[in-house]
Amino acid sequence: MSESQEKASQQDPSVSPFKLVVIDGSGFIFRAYHALPFMSGPEGVPVNAVYGFTNMLARFLKERIGTHLAVIFDAGRQTFRNKIYPQYKAHRPDVPEDLIPQFALIREATAAFGIPAIEKEGWEADDLIAAYAKKAVAAGGRCIIVSSDKDLMQLVNASVSMFDPIKSRTIGIEEVKERFGVEPGKVIEVQALMGDSVDNVPGVPGIGPKTATQLIQEYGSLEEVLAAIPQMKPSKRRENLENNREAARISLQLVKLDDEAPCPLPLKSLSFQDPNPQQLEEWLQKMQFRSILQRLNLSENSVKNKEAGEDINSSQGGGGASSSSQFGRQQDAQEQEEAEPFWKTSPYYSDYEGVTTEKQLDQWVNLITQQGYFALDTETTGLNPLEDTLVGISLAVTPGQACYIPLQHKAAATVSVDLLGHSQASSPENDLSISRHDEKIFPQLPLAVVIEKLSPLLAAPAILKIFQNAKFDMEVLHNAGFPVITPIEDTMLISYVLSAGKHGNGMDELSLLYLGHAPIPYDEVTGTGRKRISFAEVPIEKATRYAAEDADVTLRLWLALKPRLLKEKLLGVYEGYERPLIAILAAMEEAGIKIDAMELKAVSKDFAQRMAVMEEGIHHLAGRSFNLASPKQLGEILYDEMGIPGGKKTKSGTWSTDASTLQTLAEQGYDLPVRIVEWRQLAKLKSTYADALIEQVNAKTGRVHTSFQMTVTSTGRLSSNDPNLQNIPIRNEEGIKIRKAFIANPGYRLLSADYSQIELRLLAHVANIPALKEAFVLGQDIHARTASEVFGVPVEGIDPLIRRKAKAINFGIIYGISAFGLSRQLGISPKEAKEYIEIYFARYPEIYNYMETTKAYAKKHGYVQTPFGRRLWINGIGEKNSARRGYAERQAINAPLQGGAADIIKRAMVLLDHEMNAWKAHAKLLLQVHDELVFEVEEKEVEAFSQWVKTVMEQAAQISVPLVVDTGYACNWADAH
Q: Of 897, 924, 948, which residue is a domain's last?
C-alpha cells in the first residue's frame, strides 16, 4: 500500500477515495467446507471450513487489496423475504453436523485478525453487502465483493466488482454478461423468470436460463415480457407465463437485493487495521495452523516442529475406512431430501443447450468453475470404453440447466439435397436424398478444443465431477485424450451402497424411483433392430435432448441420494472403499492380462477330442445318436425311450432337462445324466473360454480386458464380463488348463494372493464361536477340528471321509444348506444328513443362534449387514410361499459372510493401491476373482513384493480371528496357485 493509500484508509471515506472489501462470510464458509478435505483440529473438532476461511483472511492481510475491510454473515434464516413468500428457502435442511461447530471458530478467526464482523437480524448477508457497496460508491470509492454467489452479480458495475477467492478470479461486467447473457442490472429480471431451485424461488415453470435470457434480451424487463404475452404465439411457454405472472413478480422481489438495508457499522469504522500479532499468533497456534503462522512470519518458534506439508491432523472415518474428501457433499441447501424435493418437482426436463461454439463452451466452463461441481455423461458408438469412439459430452450444473457438446456426429456434418433440390439437414427419415459434406451446417467443436477447455475442470481438485457409472465415462474420456479425473462421485455406486439387492441401479430405473421421471429411451433416438443407427448418426438436436437429460438426471439423483449416505451411516462404505475402487478397477481393465493363444488352441482341441469320445459313449448308452445340445431330444431319450420316471414338463410341453433335473437323476443312479452333465460342462468351458478368449484378445495390446461390474451382485462382490473371468473352475483339470493360458510378460511373473477360508473365519467372528476361533488362532486344520468336535474323533490321523463330511457341513452352513441338500452332496440319506446337522448345531449352538437372529433381523428390517456396515437387502424374506421364503432366508444367512469377504478384499485393494507408489515396484494389479488378487510383477522383485502384498492384505481388517493370505507366483496363472 502506498503512503497516500495508507493515509486515505484512516480518513473519513465520505471525503476521501477508498476501496472497500466486503467478504461474503456465510457464502465462503460453505464453499470452503465443500472445497477442502475433512480436517480435525487438536481437540478433534472439524475445521476444514475454518482453515479455508483463515487462509483467505491471511491472504488479504498480506496483500492488502483494499483500504477498508469487513466480513458479513447471515444472522438467521428468517428475513423479510419469508413474509413475501413463506416458502422462500423453506426446503433448506439442517446445516451439516460437522459444520455447526465451525461457525463459532470462524467468528473467532475474524476477531483474531481484527476484522469487523457484521450481521443483522432479519436481513440476509447479501442485502448488507448491497447496502455497503452502495454507500462505498456514493462516497466516491470502489467496492470489491469477495464471493462467487450469482445472486450478488446484480450489484456489479463500473465501481463494484466481485472476486472469487477459491478460483482467484475477478468477476466484472463482462463476466456477468457471459454468465447471464445480459447486463448486471438485468440479472434479476432473468432470475425472476427462471427461478432458483436452491432458494425455492418459484419463477416460471418450464423456463430455464437460456429461455429467460432470450426473453429479457428481446423485451427488456420482466414487466415488458408479461405485457407482451398476448402477442406471443400459442405455446406451452406462453401458457406458463400467463399462468405464473404473480409468481414471476414475487420472484423478482425475492431475488432483488435491498441496498437500503441498515448498516450496523459506519464505513469509517471498517478501515484496514493490522491485527494484534500476539493475539493472532496465539489463536493460530491453538488451531495448529502452522503453515499460516509461517506464511505470516508471526513466530519462529511456532514452526520449528512443523511437519512437511501438514497443518492439522487428518481424521480417520469409522469402521477402519480412512476419511476422504468431503466433495461428495452438496451445498447447504442440498443436504437432505424432503417429501417433495426441489430436484424432483422443478424445473422441467427441457430447454437444454447444444454447445457448438467456443464462446458457449467458455460460458459453461465459467459457470461450472463458479459453482464447484457438475454432472457429466458421455455418448459413444458402443459399450466398450477401451475401443469405442467418444461422440459427445453432456454437462449439468443445476436441475434443468444442462447442455450437450457434440463431437463426432456424422449427421451434424451433412447436408442433404432432396429430389426437388431443396437443402435440408440429413436424418434417417431422408431416404431419398443425395448427401454431401459441408462443415458449415451444424458445426461441431474440434475434440482438441474441448479437451483444452474441459481438462482444467476435470483435473481440478476443487471441482467435483458427478457421474452415473463413473468408471465407464472416465475410461472413455481418458482414451479420448482427457486427463485423469478427480474428485468424482458416482450415483450408480451411491444407489448400490444404499440399496444393494433391493432394486437395479441403472439411471432410468433410479430416475423413475426417486425423481418420478421417465428419461427418453435410447431406442427412441437410435431406433431398434435393423433400423438402429449409431449414436454418431443421431441428429444433434435430438441427441442434445437425450444426452443433456442424462446429465440433468444424474445431477438430480446425486442431490437426492448422496445425503442419505450420512443419514443411514453408509458414508464410510462408499467413501472408504467403494468410490476409490472406481479408478483402481479402471486401471486394471486398461492393463488387461496376456493370453497365450497357442495354449488356448491346444486346450480347445483337447476339449473337442474329449467331447467327441464322451458323445460316442453317451450315444451308446442312449441306444442311438442324437443332438446332445438339444433339450427336446434329450428329454425324449430320458423319459419317452428310456422310461425314467418322475420327469416334469416345461410350459412349452417339452421335458425339463436343466442342470438341477439332471443332477437329481444322477444322484438316483442313472448314468446317462451324469455323462450329459460332464459333457455340458466341458462344452461350456470350450465355448466360453478356450474358443472365445482368443477372439477377445485386443489387437493393439495382445491382452484380454475384462470389464469389472461394481453394482451387479447383491452381496457387494465384484463380477466381470467380456470375458467373465470369475467362473473359471479353480481345482478341476479343465479349469487348470485354461488358467495356464493366462501368462505374464517376459521378465515378469503372475502373483496370486488368495484369502484362506475367509467366509469361515467371518462366521467364527460374527457368530462368536470359541472353538472355531481358537482353531483359527492356533492355525489348525479347521475341517479336521470340526470333524473332531462334531463326530468325537481325534484330530490326528483323522479319516479323510469324516473330514470331507465336516468340510461339507462347514461350507454348507455358510449357504444355509438343508438336510436334503447335504444328503445330495454327501450321497447319504436325508435322515442321516439331518442328524449330522443337529449334531453340528449342538456342538456349535452359536451358529444356530446366528442363523436365527440373522433371519429375524432380515424379516424386521428387510436387509442384513456385514461386519463393516454394508447393507444388503433380502428380497422375498417376507414371502408367504415357503420355497421362496426359504431361499431368501438362506441368502440372509450367507450375505453378511460373503459381503464381509467382499468388503475385506476391497479394503485391501484400496490399501495396496495407496501404498503401491511408495513401494515403487514394477507391478500392476490385473484381476480380482472373489477372494483372490492377481498381479503382474517384475521377476526380480516378485518375492519381496509377494511378502508385502501378504502383509497388507492380512491387515486390511481387524476381526477376532487372524486373516491368512496364501501367495504364489509363476509364469502362468495356474502354476501361481
A: 897
